[in-house]
Amino acid sequence: MIIGIGTDLCDISRIEKTLQRFGDRFLNKTYRHQEQQRAARRPAKQADRLAQMFAAKEACSKALGTGLRNGVWLTTMEVVPLPSGKPTLQLHGGALARLEALTPAGMVPHLDVSLTDESGLAHAMVVISAVPKEWKIERG
Hints:
Transfers the 4'-phosphopantetheine moiety from coenzyme A to a Ser of acyl-carrier-protein. It contains five helices and five strands, in the order E-H-H-H-H-E-E-H-E-E.
């Protein structure tokens, strides 16, 4: 059962300029520590990765139905790779509380995330589903 769908498009140059201007201040207000480390592994692609993650967080906030408010902040959503390499989101704090409130009894939430970048733009789509607890789905 689909709970929410969100999508976002992010201009990579905007992230690059913000990173150059504000550095760690921007990183710490927007990304969790592990996200920062993963993006920094490939300096030539750092802005691309950060833009993808930013788009994923915006898309997730839309799928949660709140946008970035009511305890759903950029740092309460974390883009993480599953063992297969497929991206997903781990939610914390207010974002996790909102997800739990949306999930019907007897079911567990499942987040599908798609990330891409092309021609200076990063795109993310997030689909939040509620599935029976018995289903075996790869989780982060």
